[in-house]
Design brief:
Layout (H helix, E strand, L loop, with lengths): L1 H34 L6 E7 L1 E5 L2 E17 L4 E6 L6 E2 L4 E5 L2 H30 L4 H27 L1 E3 L4 E3 L9 E2 L4 E18 L11 E5 L7 E13 L5 E8 L11 E7 L4 E7 L11 E9 L6 E9 L1 E6 L2 E6 L6 E5 L10 E3 L17
Parallel strand pairs: 1-21
Antiparallel strand pairs: 1-20, 2-15, 3-10, 3-14, 4-6, 4-9, 5-8, 6-7, 8-10, 10-13, 11-12, 11-14, 12-13, 15-19, 16-17, 16-20, 18-19
């Protein structure tokens, strides 16, 4: 009985050992298979790097402002007696816009004129008396000062009356009036906007890296959505001497002719600056660049040797590049690439250095300096 039991235990032990050995071999085979597994190559599109003609121009988004623009306001407090303009009308420099009530000032002017006349009469009498020796020279000097003071009072009241007639400071186009007849205006209250619309300024900003090639007088071309098919030409009239520490951009102002006054203050426009002769540059589609705070990079397709198997395959290596300018779909590369190298143009976000790739250029991303979208 004991012998049979030992035999059973031996058989069970051998069975367990056999099962364990079989599983061990399976696990070893799986590990070996996993270590030799390679993921399939990622499909990407590529372009062969080459030099192209790069126009010597810069592009920016600008905002239109008037060369002369102001909100006409009340110089002194008063009640509106007459409004002599229409909203949106064109006015000349010096044209009367608003008259405030001056009844009180005219009454004061009459009083001041009477005092001035009396002071001058007294002065004439005093001059005769001084000659006869009846009054002292000091008394004559006092009366002379009183006459001058009376004249100054007359001039001050006349100036006050003049300031209550509000005139256009320059020729231009009025906006919408902000006052009504009989309304009491305080000093500085707005009356109506006034803008001179030809010529106009266009204000825009450029990166500090572009300032060195920019000079006052450079040709500027402006296009606006509200004037499709029309370009407005002008020149750079001012470059700010200070660079914004927050954006590292420099403010630039251009002056342009505005025929037909189609450009209005506050309007956004596309600005193009002509910097002279074009140059040669290595160009890439913008989709090829992996933008990052620590540096911009691209993936270059090349033959890579596997260090384990010593076999060669088509893979990618990461290359850091320096970008000069952007235009349309393209960017100009200053350093990091050479003509003839093959660069990934789409699918770069899923790549890592050393990964295998399969190139399929059936559909490629845009690569034009002047793109024209189908729904534009």
């Amino acid at each position: 009985m004991a012998k049979r039991m030992w035999l059973m235990l031996l058989i069970v032990g051998l069975f367990i050992v056999g099962i364990g050995g079989y599983k061990f071999l399976q696990i070893q085979a799986a590990i070996a298979s996993g270590s030799s597994y390679k993921p399939p190559p990622e499909t990407v599109t590529t372009i062969v790097v080459r030099e192209e003609e790069w126009p010597a121009s810069l592009s920016a988004i600008g905002s239109v402002s008037a060369v002369q623009g102001v909100v006409v306001s009340a110089d002194l407090a008063g009640v509106v007696r007459a409004i002599e303009f229409q909203s949106g009308s064109r006015v000349r420099a010096g044209q009367t816009l608003v008259r405030l009530d001056t009844a009180q000032e005219h009454a004061q002017l009459q009083q001041a004129n009477a005092q001035s006349e009396l002071a001058h009469l007294n002065l004439v009498r005093a001059e005769k008396l001084v000659v006869k020796g009846l009054i002292a020279q000091a008394e004559l000097d006092r009366m002379n000062a009183e006459a001058k003071s009376a004249d100054a009072s007359v001039s001050a009241i006349e100036a006050t009356i003049g300031r209550k007639t509000i005139r256009a400071p320059f020729s231009g186009v009025l906006g919408i009036r902000e006052i009504n007849l009989g309304q009491h205006l305080n000093e500085g209250d707005p009356i109506v906007p006034l803008q001179a619309l030809d010529p106009v300024h266009v204000d825009f900003a450029l990166p500090q890296t572009d300032v060195s090639g920019l000079k006052a007088g450079a040709a500027v071309s402006v296009a606006a959505d509200s004037a499709v098919g029309s370009n407005f030409n002008g020149h750079v009239s001012a470059i700010n001497s200070v660079i914004d520490p927050a954006t590292r951009n420099v403010s630039v102002q251009a002056t342009l002719k505005n025929p037909g006054e189609r450009l209005r203050p506050g309007m956004y426009v596309d600005v193009k600056l002509d910097l002279g002769k074009a140059s040669r540059a290595i160009t890439l589609p913008a989709s090829a660049i992996s933008f990052a705070p620590y540096g911009n990079s691209v993936f270059v397709v090349e033959n890579i040797t596997d260090p384990k198997t010593k076999k060669s395959y088509r893979g990618v290596s990461q290359r850091f590049v320096k970008i000069a300018h952007e235009r349309g779909d393209q960017v100009a590369i200053v350093s990091g690439l050479k003509p003839g190298e093959e660069v990934v143009t789409s699918g770069a976000f899923k790549l890592r250095p050393g990964m295998a790739v399969a190139v399929d250029n059936t559909i490629k991303p845009g690569n034009s300096q002047n793109p024209n979208p189908a729904d534009s």
